[in-house]
Amino acid sequence: MGTSHSLSLDHTTLEWKTTDKFIVCTDGLNGAIDDASIEAQLQKSESTDLSELLINCALERRALDNVTVIAVQCEGKK
């Protein structure tokens, strides 16, 4: 978030399906791993392993910033 007194956030509203997954991450992940690679991991990994997998991948690629990942999978009824 830096040292600025103001904060600008991107946001959107989405419809969830029971198989949907999403991540919230810092730019340390985005800077080390391209979007296509992140999406590929989202498709093939369980959400319980996804955060650790993405963090380790970013660290192996020598991420230049802190790496934080929260992975969420929607389960059950709306």
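[next item in queue]
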Amino acid sequence: MRRVTAALLSGKRVARGYLGVTAQAVPLPEALAAQLGQPSGLLLTHVEPLSPAEQGRLVQGDTLVRLNGRPLRDLRDL
């Protein structure tokens, strides 16, 4: 946050990624959680039309558990 604030105050441009989803952390079924070694994933509650997420064929109701091999347990991981 401090880097972004400092960059904006100095007149620099800050690039941020945009996926186009709203998500919430949800517990995974016990067997899947044991298999993946993580207790939760991210349930997509909304996918913006024409967003990168929709173009990547993500749909509302999908549950994401990994991104580039890294576990997704809560929104900070996304």
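[queue empty]
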